[in-house]
Design brief:
Shape: globular
Largest sheet: 3 strands, antiparallel
Number of strands: 3
Order of helices and strands: HHHEEEHHHH
Oligomer: single chain
Radius of gyration: 17 Å
Strand content: 5-15%
Structural class: alpha+beta
Helix content: 25-40%
Distance between the termini: 18 Å
Length: 202
Amino acid sequence: APRAPILRHHLLAIRDLLDLDGDQRHRTFYAFILCAWQGVKRSGDLIEPKSSQGAAWDPRRCLHRGRLRVVVARDASGRAIGKTLVFANKPSKINPDGAKRDETYYPIDRTPGAVNAAAAVEAMLRGDPWDGALEDAPVFRDPATGREITYAAVCAFLDYWLARAGFPELATGTHALRAGGATSVANLCPDGQLLSGLMGHW
């Protein structure tokens, strides 16, 4: 049976329970959850898939901080009018040699109360500064271990907080995030072909 999607109001309910001001682990896992949801991402697009856990950290294969950049949009006078966090996606089963460096764009919205992946990533990185080579730092680094977060840890975190928020029926793993992101976009843009072009790999 298809899994029920995680939607914006579910994420708001989880956010209200988390300590995003004081707990770096909460900030890290919340940022991951929003990136998977807003970017309509598989977990394996953001961290190593379950089959690869235990392998040595490999910057050629993994999503690291060197693959992030901020792009500033400016008006005709040169005034900054918006910023976007850009992920240069890691090599995947679609582009295993890394030749096709496709990108995911997350507009930054720091409005209080916004459900925004880029703002969540900014907060996560401020709480976990890195003074070494960016290629040596996972984007999503578990402060409990100092290593890249794992699929199992993400699932456990998401399932726990969904249950705490009153949605235990949604505690079915991270694919519900991708389904929820696609559902939310489809509600705004019912053109399936356009949705596929915007999100890709669906």
